Amino acid sequence: MKSYLESRNFTEIAEVDDINSIHITQEVRDRCADNYCGFYGKNHMCPPAVGDLEHYRQVIKGYGKGLVFSKAYPVKSRYDYQSMVAAGIAFREEIQEINKRAKADQLDCLFFSAGTCSICESCAILTDEPCRFPEDAIPSLEAAGIDVVGLSRSLGMTYNNGADKVTYFGLVLYQAG
C-alpha cells in the first residue's frame, strides 16, 4: 500500500504500528455538528448519515495496518480560502484515484480523507436517495471521529507547515500481505 502513496509525492507518510492507537472520540465528531464546512447532514459521508462511532471502531479493528499521509499545498496566506478549497479538492481527488487503483488490484483497504466526499456534484442525500457510489465514497477522518491532530503528532508528523501552506491528511487501513 505504501508504494501507492509514494507514487503520489505526499509530503509525509507514516506507518501506524498499532491499529489501536487510532483514537475515535465523540469530541472530534461533535465538531462536525458545528457545521463550519456546511456539509453536516448534506452528504452521505458526513454526520449524521455516515454512521456511528462504534461502527468505525469496529471497522478499524478489522484491519491490520495503517498509513497516515499528508500533503502540504502552497497558499498566499492563512486567509486564502479559495486556494485552501482548491487544495482540499485536489487532495480528495488524489485519494479517489489511489483508492480506485487499489480496488482494481483487489486490495482490501479503506481510505479516510480530509473534508467531505465530493464525487457527485450534488449528493444524493439532498433528494433522499441512497449514495450513488457507496464503494467509492470516502468518509473524512473527522466524520469517523478520528483525532487526526493527535494521531499525526503521535507519529511525528508535521501538522502545521506554516502560514504559506495548508496541509491535508488522509488515512488508509489495509490488510498485511
Helix content: 25-40%
User: How would you name the oligomeric state of the polypeptide chains in this document?
Assistant: single chain
Q: How far apart lie the N and C ends?
A: 10 Å
| Low-pLDDT segments | none
Proportion of residues in β-strands: 15-25%
Structure description:
The protein is α+β, with helices and mostly antiparallel strands. It has helices at 2-6, 26-33, 53-61, 81-104, 148-154, and strands at 12-16, 65-74, 109-112, 165-174. The protein has a 4-stranded antiparallel β-sheet with strand order 1-2-4-3, with helices on both faces. The chain is globular, with a radius of gyration of 15 Å. The termini are close together. The mean pLDDT is 92.
What is the topology?
Layout: H1 2-6, E1 12-16, H2 26-33, H3 53-61, E2 65-74, H4 81-104, E3 109-112, H5 148-154, E4 165-174
Antiparallel strand pairs: 1-2, 2-4, 3-4
Q: What key attributes describe this structure?
A:
177 residues; alpha+beta; four-stranded antiparallel sheet; 4 strands; 30% helix; 16% strand
Short description:
The chain is of the alpha+beta class.
